Amino acid sequence: MDARALTRVLLQCVIACSAISATTTVLAAEPGTAKKTTIPRTADGKPDFGGFWTHETITPLERPASYGERNVMNAQELQAAEKFAADHVAKSDAPTDPKAKVQDLPHDCGYGFTGANCGYNNFWVDRGEKVLRIKGEPRASILTDPANGRMPALKPEAMKQQAAARNAFRKNAGPVDGPELRSLGERCILSFGSNGGPPMLPNMYNNAYQFVQTKDNFMVLVEMVHDARVVRFNGKPLPAAVPKWLGDSIGRWEGDTMIIETTNFHPLHTFRGAGSNRKVVEKFSYASPNEILYQFTVSDPETFTKSFGGELIFNRTNEPVYEYACHEGNYALPGILAGARAEESQGQKATAKEVGAEDDGE
């Protein structure tokens, strides 16, 4: 048996063991009623979050400024948002005229995507069509803190450092000088956006996860780029000299809530400007037998004027996490670099001709 097959067998054993769990009846407090619900529990009585989950939603991370500090949508706003999403899917799913030329294709394809970024066929997109609902409330943003649902301001020193870094990058190296200067998503190291997290946030597709839970560990497998994060319960942090792409995650229990604290991120893995010294606290609790309430707080006193956080829902699904083939058959990155080299070669030839013409003139 080769290493790949052995790994697959071991993972299946872990999944099977975590699936053997007891269920406990709990009372869900509702005004004037006592409704019985059951949540899955492990053999030692902890809530069992193992299984397949998804959290796609059309609710954005940041709240539109027009809402102010109001994060619950009214009936008209909810209807308009979900109608826009449904209409967008219907329009995008319509067959393309086979006689259409490149210049006939839409320049603006919605949700802020324009031009070349409209290249994704809607078949591959799965951002959902519903607004995020928590306790029955349709939410205008995932962020709940600050109260306006917007990212807090950067500290003046952080703004200066980021501006200096951008200027140095433009002066000393271009984004097409080599693969190392492309984004982590393009290099298939991590997912773009923050699917892998933490915090784990929805993207335009591949919003599926598999959670595997044991007494000592909690594993998060992300469909996007197959990022895998292993949380150690009651463990000790790794040395600062050993940063990890998804950070070093330590878990603990407070009643029926699983709390994960993550620090020591790889320097190249930033989040909305937050650097490697940030701390992310995640909380998992059951909102219903098929819904996980996921709450998070991000702290980076070196970068932001205050911490920020939010919440969303993971919904249980019967669909497994599918293979995400990133570079296999993907010629985008080699094409970008090859195109840049071709432009450089043409520029050098043009310069050589100009120099030759000047020499002939002399």
- Span between termini: 75 Å
Structural class: alpha+beta
**CATH domain class of the largest domain:** Mainly Beta
Q: Identify the overall geometry.
A: globular
Please, how many helices?
4
Helix proportion range:
10-25%
Mean of all residue-level pLDDT scores:
82
Spans of at least 5 consecutive residues whose pLDDT stays below 50 are 1-34
Query: What is the N-to-C order of secondary-structure elements (H for helix, E for strand)?
Result: HEEEHEEEHEEEEEEEEH
Residues in β-strands, percent = 15-25%
Tally the structural domains.
2
Architecture per CATH nomenclature, i.e. the level-2 architecture of the largest domain: Beta Barrel
- What CATH calls the topology of the largest domain is Lipocalin
Task: Give the CATH superfamily of the largest domain.
Answer: Calycin beta-barrel core domain
* Rg calculated over all Cα atoms: 24 Å
For the secondary structure, the number of strands is: 14
Largest beta sheet, briefly? 9 strands, mixed, barrel
**Sheet with most strands: strand arrangement:** 3-7-8-9-10-11-12-13-14
